[in-house]
Amino acid sequence: MDKLVLRSHLALLLGMLLWGSSFIALKVAVTAMSPMVVVFMRMSIGAMAFLVMWPWLRHGFNYQKGDWKFLLSMALFEPCLYFIFEAQALQYTSAGQAGMVTAMLPLMVAAGAFFFLKEQTNLRQWIGFVIAVSGVIWMTMTGEDSEQAPNAILGNFLEFLAMCTAVGYTLLIKHLVARYSAFVLTALQSFAGALFFLPIALASPWPESISISIVGVLLYLGLVVTIGAYGLYNYSMTHLKATTAAGYANLLPVFTLIFSMLLLGERLTLSQWIAIAIVFVGVALSQERKPKISKKVPPAVTG
């Protein structure tokens, strides 16, 4: 395997690891303050970081007439609607179960791309996706109720709605990335998210004080996940196809479940460990044997 391709696969793997950890960080944050306040602060931290980098980023932004409707729709889908659903979801379900729902994203993206973008996916990739999703369903069915999931059905449904908005975001991104830098688009999302969630956050209850640990969680979400994960994501797409990256999204529920076990005290049964192995098999099958170089952005990411 070419070294650049290998590095790109490793970048995607690390990116999925970071996004998997974001569910844990968000779950911890929403237990300490209003979900909308958490999302606003996360978006604001990311926006301030991008503002510092804007002198270098602005060269990749050359607005083209008529694109406002695509840019506006992109921001509406993600982060606006996406984080409304996800932040609320984590009030009712556990971080592990919410992460499991994200395994539906590759199939949903592939279906959306097939119908709207006329993209083709081979049979082996579909089989890999189905196997990975089957593993996630197994993990879900073998999970046990806990204090962290008071209404798992509602929470998982809200997370599913978040995945629907992620699909809409993906289809728009695949159109916009031909015109604008993916990193610039990410910066615009942070600015739009901060403005969108400002009035919602002001109308929400604020905590009397914020602990140092929660500040650290917010900084992690706003800086490490938003900038670090997206940076790895953008780098990998220089050398890999979007469909190749889609399979890696199936690792999100696995990483999230493992982090939930290590950091939140959730426990894995033998059946869940077997299910995790099945997810990895599905991811391996969903990868193309001869990846083609493409500069298109991959499916939407979460967290």
From TrEMBL:
Q: Where are the transmembrane segments?
A: 35-56, 97-116, 123-141, 153-173, 180-204, 210-233, 245-264, 270-286
Give UniProt keywords alphabetically: Cell membrane, Membrane, Transmembrane, Transmembrane helix
Where in the numbering of this chain does the EamA domain appear?
Answer: 9-140, 154-285
How is it placed in the membrane, per its record? Multi-pass membrane protein
Coiled coil ranges (UniProt) are none
- Tell me the superkingdom of the source: Bacteria
Q: Cellular location of this protein?
A: Cell membrane
Can you say what this protein is called? DMT family transporter
